[in-house]
Write a structure and sequence with these properties.
By secondary structure, the protein is mostly beta strands. It folds into two domains: 116 residues, YVTN repeat-like/Quinoprotein amine dehydrogenase (Methylamine Dehydrogenase, Chain H, 7 Propeller), CATH 2.130.10; 79 residues, no CATH class. The protein has two helices and 19 strands. Strands 1-2-3-4 form a four-stranded antiparallel beta sheet, with no helix packed on it. The chain has a four-stranded antiparallel beta sheet with strand order 5-6-7-8, with no helix packed on it. The longest helix has 23 residues.
Length: 267
């Protein structure tokens, strides 16, 4: 087999370079002389994740399609910690990505089964309030481009960054209870009626029709005693202010060269 490099990473102080090779070895090199210092043995499949520690120049994390996650001391060429991502009844899960937290005390990985694995010190109590399956209802929603080539959400015809915060749903598109919806940034202080999504029927790729979240539940402004969505009102207000500023700039801008000199500015 002809060796091929699948991933490269420098350590924190750039004194070492680690390369992952398709023969399942990790090689540690001196970045100044190019000398090979260590062969790190442990992976049984190709490695596409190499992550350096944010401040400890000795530490490098590797993960691969074999489900193995290693923490290495690259100065000594030794294994510090090892985790095998075994999923009950399904075999191992290939690890696709890993990242350290800024303080270096935790790291998170994602695997081929859609799991988020969080490693660190202490207990897991802060994570117990999070549901097992978490997706945004806008995940995988189709996008289109308008006449100006700007990206819009196909269903709402809005720019994605102007849309209200999404809802949390499970893998089948069923919305989670309101206590979980408050975990979404932008929904922390919303009233209960604004945390209830609007459901609709959506056809899947195989022709099956399922009930899924289709967007923000809106309130009819004509009904007495009910208020419109706060987020929708803020979006409309921002758009109105932007239109007013644009109109004022265009009125104040000169329509042509003055005294035959200069170039007119655009509003």
């Amino acid at each position: 087999m002809k060796p091929k490099v699948t991933m490269i990473a420098w350590n924190q102080n750039d004194n070492y370079v680690v390369t992952a090779v398709n023969n399942h070895l990790l090689k540690v090199w001196n970045s100044c002389t190019g000398q090979l210092l260590h062969d790190l043995v442990g992976h049984a499949d190709e490695v596409f994740v190499l992550e350096t520690h944010p401040f400890d120049c000795r530490i490098m994390l590797s993960a691969g399609h074999d489900g193995n996650i290693f923490i290495w001391d690259i100065t000594k060429g030794t294994k510090t910690k090892h985790y095998f991502n075994m999923i009950e009844g399904q075999g191992h899960g290939a690890v696709f990505d890993c990242k350290f937290s800024p303080d270096g005390q935790h790291f998170a990985c994602t695997d081929s089964h859609g799991h988020l694995l969080i490693f660190g010190f202490g207990c897991s109590r802060p994570y117990e309030k999070i549901p097992d399956q978490m997706f945004f209802h806008t995940d995988y929603r189709p996008l289109i481009r308008d006449s100006n080539n700007y990206v819009l959400d196909e269903q709402t015809q809005q720019a994605p960054h102007l849309m209200p915060p999404p809802f949390l749903v499970d893998v089948d598109g069923n919305p989670h209870p309101t206590k979980y919806q408050r975990l979404v940034p932008g929904r922390e202080n919303c009233a209960d009626e604004h945390l209830i999504p609007q459901l609709g029927y959506v056809a899947t790729s195989d022709g099956e029709v399922v009930e899924q979240v289709i967007g923000q539940q809106t309130v009819d402004q004509d009904e007495p005693g009910l208020e419109p969505s706060i987020l929708d009102g803020m979006i409309r207000q921002l758009q109105l202010e932007q239109d007013q500023r644009t109109g004022a700039d265009q009125e104040s801008a000169p329509s042509g060269p003055q005294n035959g000199e200069g170039t007119p500015r655009r509003g």
